[in-house]
From TrEMBL:
This is Methyl-accepting transducer domain-containing protein. PANTHER family: LYSOZYME-LIKE PROTEIN-RELATED, METHYL-ACCEPTING CHEMOTAXIS PROTEIN MCPB. It comes from Brevibacillus invocatus. GO terms for cellular component: membrane. InterPro entries: MCPsignal_dom.
Length: 131
């Protein structure tokens, strides 16, 4: 019986050692899982920060695009105003050219009439001189 007790005690000792080793391995596995979980939590936190930063960046981009669109609209309106003013200036220049042309024609007619009057006055003087 003593022998059986020694065998059982030896087996219990081996089981205790194996349990101890298994417990150590379980503890190591749990520690690794905790570390891995902490790493995952940190990665998720960093990911959330990046997402929030990207969201802010997109908001700023949208604001810049909207501001640019407003500026483009303002520039387009200014260009339309300038085009209208340019057309008015062109119309005024054409009117001035037409008036200048009419004035030139009137001046030529006046010069021609003045020349005829001068000729007639000379003839009249000659006739008066003969009388």
């Amino acid at each position: 019986m003593k022998y059986q007790f020694i065998v059982v005690a030896d087996s219990v000792g081996k089981l205790a050692n194996q349990s101890g080793e298994a417990t150590k391995e379980i503890i190591l596995l749990v520690q690794r899982m905790q570390e891995s979980t902490q790493d995952t939590v940190e990665t998720v936190r960093l990911g959330n920060e990046l997402i929030m930063h990207a969201g802010h960046s997109f908001t700023e981009i949208i604001e810049y695009v909207n501001n640019s669109a407003e500026r483009i609209t303002e520039v387009a309106a200014s260009c339309e105003e300038q085009a209208a003013q340019t057309n008015e200036i062109l119309q005024s220049a054409q009117n001035i050219a037409a008036v200048t042309e009419q004035t030139s024609a009137s001046t030529e007619e006046t010069a021609s009439a003045t020349e005829e009057l001068a000729t007639m006055a000379e003839k009249l003087n000659q006739l008066v001189g003969k009388l």
